[in-house]
Specification:
This protein is mainly alpha-helical and about 80 residues long. Helices cover about 60% and strands about 0% of the residues. It comes from Pelagimonas phthalicica.
Length: about 80
């Protein structure tokens, strides 16, 4: 059973979906497993930095184990 997404997770899932070209709705989804690359991570980092108002690096996107973990790190930053 897929867990529901928080508001910030929905916002980030929309960014991932747009960049990856596929629907992202699972909070345990992994950016790299979904076909992400360093170039796509750079697009995510740029868009997310603007939308979340906090500096997000390419490394942040790549090393996160899941969408939920990534958003959790943003919320505690």
């Amino acid at each position: 059973m897929t867990q529901s997404l928080t508001a910030d997770e929905q916002k980030m899932a929309a960014i991932w979906s747009n960049v990856l070209g596929c629907e992202v709705s699972d909070p345990e989804a992994n950016f790299m497993d979904l076909g992400g690359s360093s170039l796509l991570a750079a697009q995510v980092a740029k868009t997310a930095t603007t939308q979340f108002g906090t500096k997000i690096s390419v490394v942040d996107v790549i090393v996160a184990q899941s969408l939920r973990e990534f958003v959790g790190e943003l919320e505690t930053a």
